[in-house]
Amino acid sequence: MRLFVTVSVVAFAVLWTFGVQNWLAQSVQGSAERGPTSIARADAATAIALAPPIVEPTRSRVATTVTAAMLPPVIESTPTLTLTVVPTRTPEPTATTIDLAAPPARTGNERMPSFGAREIVIVDADSGAVLFEQAAHRRVAPASTTKIVTALVALRNRDWSEMVTADFDETELYDSTLMGLRRGERVSLEDLLFGLMLPSGNDAALAIASHVAGSPSRFATEMNERAAELGLLNSQFRNPHGLDATGHYSSAYDMVQFARAGMRDPRFRELSSARTRVVHPGGRSYEIVNLNRLLGQLSGADGVKIGYTEDAGRTIVASATRNGHRVYIGAFHSADLVGDCKPLFEWVFRNYTWKQ
């Protein structure tokens, strides 16, 4: 009995499987004849039930942003600035680059003369080339070579024929060299400048400072501004005359550069080279004399200024011109200004050659 049931079940399974296969074959054949659209309609419920959910692309700003971010970056062409480096002269007033002349060439082999100055510099005027230096940038008391800067500032944008009422504090003139002014006298700026540079008048320095800037201290500020304009870093002034004062200093090199700037003005050249001058303060007339002895002892000597104080010792900024070429010497703490400078000038002019 148990065997009969088992055989019956197996037979039923075989017959059922065979029937299903025939039904599927007929369905496929019929479906092929009816086409894909009919399949979709006939089995729509089954397809919908079995198919995975369809997710349509979301059209949103986020999707657009992400898509844009995934694209290669677009580089827009923008105008570019091309910089062309062109050598230019530093605008005046940088003292060391005012001129572009070629420096003189050393063509002689003479030994350089000895000298006693502690700080010294020899400079070619046209090119600014330093031909020799010793402690040339050391900050030292400049004494009355300060008046080179006083004249430089006073002449700037001024007509030296203008009249000045001499105003100065006489208590500042103790143990000073003087032009010989009297307070309240009317005198031309031109006469004051000759009185400043030739006899090294401290009275003239104070009168000029009060006239130009209103007071000596404000004038000293203008002197310092001029130093900054010229790019001279080792100079600072407290007064217009050069008497020793705390914080009042310059260097041999800086003072030569002030002279170079001044000598571009023909009025300054006249002030530097004149050996005597008749001045007329307050209607009086008298002669003043240049204290720079080098002017009468060296061929071609044409300036500039000497000085002396206890701190500075003897100082000079000297200038000499031969065959159209000027050379400067700045010498500080010298025991003999002429003895130091004259042999050095002769040596330079014998041993250096300028291009024609």
Summarize the structure.
This protein is α+β, with helices and mostly antiparallel strands and 356 residues long.
Structural summary, described in words:
This protein has 356 residues and is an alpha+beta fold. 38% of the residues lie in helices and 16% in strands. The strands form four sheets. The chain has a five-stranded antiparallel β-sheet with strand order 3-2-10-9-8, with helices on both faces. Strands 1-11 form a two-stranded antiparallel ribbon. A two-stranded antiparallel ribbon has the order 4-5. Helix 5 packs parallel to helix 9. The N terminus is likely disordered.
CATH class designation of the domain at 115-353: Alpha Beta
The value of Rg in angstroms is 49 Å
Give the overall shape: globular
Strand count, sense and closure of the main sheet? 5 strands, antiparallel
Please tag this protein with its features.
356 residues; alpha+beta; Beta-lactamase; five-stranded antiparallel beta sheet; two-stranded antiparallel sheet; 11 helices; 16% strand; globular; disordered N terminus
Q: Secondary-structure blueprint of this entry?
A:
Layout: H1 2-34, H2 36-42, H3 44-50, H4 61-70, E1 105-106, E2 119-124, E3 130-134, H5 146-155, E4 163-165, E5 186-188, H6 189-197, H7 202-213, H8 216-229, H9 252-262, H10 266-273, E6 276-279, E7 286-289, E8 301-309, E9 313-322, E10 325-334, H11 337-351, E11 352-353
Antiparallel strand pairs: 1-11, 2-3, 2-10, 4-5, 6-7, 8-9, 9-10
Helix pairs in contact: 5-9, 6-7, 7-8
